[in-house]
């Protein structure tokens, strides 16, 4: 890296209170100038691509290590959308749940075979990524959807045709310090953490150690650290098992 560094480009975005930006080898993704829009910049070619990912503001954004796929979530928090790059076509749509939620973290596994997501529902979801949606056999298509043949019937609610997570488990969230909130008598607790939307500690931050192991870290008064293993059971179904747990602020 040169010192001082050279400016390569600058781009205007919508308000980005969560500082959303994802970078991989040769590609950077960030919010565009329109709500729900993702802009991608290719360092090698200098090309700029735009994905109209959601109708509401973005809440989470992630790129694979190779930069060939981008995952997005909006403030609605019910759907995770998967896009290819550089074609910018939608590869898949994953349903985290039916009720709205706040997405805490979104992260691809190192080899790009899975994507993990955490939310304020205190859950960790793992989704299998399609190796290619075009040309799937009916059998493969049926296995992809939770509702199988029901997903092909017309006039059903939208969530019957969405792809559900292949594995899910509960996670620990860091507790808020006593007295925090709008009715607190403490000026510090009322103000919250400077520069953080809502002033609350970070929760459910995902980090993959390898393609089978990930950690989830939360902040707060009882800040927990958890380690999970992704495995396959006797029926061929993916499962998540917790292999480690610690309140890391304790001595």
Order of helices and strands: EEEEEEEEEEEHEEHEEEE
CATH architecture: Beta Barrel
- Based on secondary structure, the structural category is mainly beta
- Rg (C-alpha, Å): 19 Å
Protein name: WD40-repeat-containing domain protein
Subcellular location: Vacuole membrane
Membrane topology: Peripheral membrane protein
InterPro entries: PROPPIN, WD40/YVTN_repeat-like_dom_sf, WD40_repeat_dom_sf, WD40_rpt
What would you say this structure looks like, in words?
- One of its GO terms (cellular component) is vacuolar membrane.
- This is WD40-repeat-containing domain protein.
- It is found in: Vacuole membrane.
- By secondary structure, the protein is mainly beta.
- The chain is 5% helix and 39% strand.
- The protein is built from two helices and 17 strands.
- The protein has helices at residues 138-144, 187-191; strands at residues 22-24, 27-31, 37-42, 48-52, 58-63, 69-74, 79-84, 90-95, 103-108, 114-119, 123-128, 163-164, 167-170, 205-210, 213-217, 224-232, 238-247.
- The strands form four sheets. A five-stranded mixed β-sheet has the order 5-6-7-8-12, with no helix packed on it. Strands 1-2-3-4 form a four-stranded antiparallel β-sheet, with no helix packed on it. A four-stranded antiparallel β-sheet has the order 9-10-11-13, with no helix packed on it.
- Strand 5 (58-63) and strand 6 (69-74) form a beta hairpin.
- It is globular.
